[in-house]
Amino acid sequence: MSRPNLLNRLTFRQLQVFQAVHRQQSYSRAAEQLGLTQPAVSAQIRQLEQALEQPLFKYAGKTLHVLPAADALAASVQSIFGQVSSLQMELSELAGTIRGELNLAAVSTAQYVVPHILARFRARYPEVQVRLRVCNRGQALERLAERRDDLVIMGMVPEDANLAFMPILDNEMIPVVWPGHPLLTADSPTLEDFTRYYVLMREPGSGTRTAFEDFVARERVSLRHTLELGTNEAIKQGVMAHLGVAVLPRLAVQLELASGLLASPTLPGFPLRRSWCTVHPKDRYPTPVTELFLRFVRELLPELNDHFKAPLVPAPGPSFACTP
Questions:
Q1: Which residues have CB under 8 Å from 87's CB, separation 6+?
Q2: Model pTM?
Q3: Strands 245-249, 272-281: parallel, antiparallel or unpaired by DSSP?
Q4: Distances 26 to 53, 63, 135, 244, 301 between C-alpha atoms, Å
Q5: Which residues are bridge partners to 309 per DSSP?
Q6: Which of 174, 137, 139 is nearest to 254 (CA)?
Q7: Which of 118, 134, 175, 318 has its CA 20 to 30 A from that of 208?
Q8: Quick one: what percent of the chain has pLDDT higher than 70?
Q9: CA–CA separation, 54 and 180 (whole Å)
Q10: Model confidence over 218-268: pLDDT tens digits?
Q11: Phi, psi (5° rounding) for residue 27?
Q12: Per-domain residue ranges for the chain?
């Protein structure tokens, strides 16, 4: 008995829902990602399984197991959606405009850079819909693992051979104190002098915090006094209130430095440097719009470096690539 023609039984919506469940390995997380209810997701998967005449997922307790048919379908769906994206790009080019969607996630420190890139990108390609999610590093890693975005922009790329990354801009991290702080007039202040004050820090796993902790460990200096605050903005306010000192990205404090609300003492070993990078899984082929964005960023690098005055070249102080 021959199987019915799948072309007459499948819908793009079913495949979209399936892809979300397969990537998230969770009905509830897929529903959240797609803005649907969990029963709606379950119904779409049920209809798809009926069309394929094969089960795709199976629950064992509370764990969702992916069956072989689902893995086979996932590879085909990725190819199908890639072809549709390419077709959309070709049709847009024929019409004289570039259309499509670009979904980005960026760690909070990159929020001082990414809007400048997006403004230039949107000026050239106004028909591209861009969605940007700003999050902390832990959330960025979670989104990367769940493949929720076309690209993730972050400073500390995990050591994973399955990830592709491209450095886009230098991230200088500098010591920050309040105006009139004793370190500003001290004779040759040291890292030990700096850490005698309470150091205001982000949450564990933050790229800036990790870079500073690694530096302190290499210098064999003890961090005896620390206070954890949730955001860079909270840390800046804490320093201005004389709550403590901090190490922050230069771009995060450039306005406060220029206006005299904050100051940066000269300390040996600073600035610390890492690179902000675009990151995506190697086995997730970039959509045509994503490839267009990456090509645009590569062309924009010289202008960005001039604009932010932070070129990606060796400079005094420890230098770190995208990977630890």
A1: none
A2: 0.66
A3: unpaired
A4: 21, 8, 21, 43, 39
A5: none
A6: 174
A7: 118
A8: 90
A9: 71
A10: 999 999 899 999 889 999 999 999 999 999 999 899 999 999 999 999 999
A11: -70, -40
A12: 6-92, 99-170+275-309, 171-272
- Report pLDDT digits (tens) over 166-185: 888 888 999 999 999 999 99
CATH class of the 6-92 domain in this structure:
mainly alpha
Fold (topology level) of 99-170+275-309: D-Maltodextrin-Binding Protein; domain 2 (3.40.190)
Per-residue tokens: 103: 């979904």
What are the structure tokens assigned to 240, written together? Answer: 């201005």
- Which of 85, 82, 64 lies closest to 22 in space, CA to CA? 64
Characterize the bridge pairing of strands 57-60 and 63-66.
Answer: antiparallel
pLDDT, mean of residues 40-66: 88
Condensed to tens digits (0 to 9), the pLDDT of residues 81-140 reads 777 766 766 776 666 667 788 999 999 888 888 988 999 999 988 888 999 999 888 889
Which residue(s) pair with 278 in the sheet? 153, 166
11 is written with which tokens?
């819908």
At 290, the amino acid letter reads T
Pair of tokens at residue 206: 């933050």
Q: Using alpha carbons, list the distances in angstroms from residue 298 to 157, 168, 294.
A: 19, 7, 6
What pLDDT sits at residue 314? 32
Q: Does domain 171-272 have CATH number 3.40.630.30?
A: no
Distance in angstroms (rounded) separating the CA atoms of residues 308 and 119: 15
Residue with tokens 């102080």: 317
Q: Residue 161: its pLDDT value, please?
A: 76
Strands (E), 30-139: 57-60, 63-66, 100-107, 128-135
134-146 tens-digit pLDDT? 988 888 988 888 8
Phi and psi based region of residue 95 (left: phi greater than 0; alpha: psi -120 to 50; beta: remaining): alpha
Bridge partners (DSSP) listed for residue 60: 63
Pairing of strands 100-107, 151-154: parallel
